Amino acid sequence: MPVAADFRTYTFDRKRVEAAGKSLGKDPYWRLYAAENILRVIVNSVLSAQLGVGWWTTAVDQNVQGSVTRFRERYAARPWHSTPGKHEIYYTFLSDLADIMRANSHVFLPLVPDVDAWIAKVEQVALPRNIVGHMNWLTPTDRKRIEVFQSDVTALAQQLESGGPGRPPLAMRVP
Question: Which pLDDT tens digit goes with each residue over 115-129?
Answer without folding.
Answer: 999 999 999 999 999
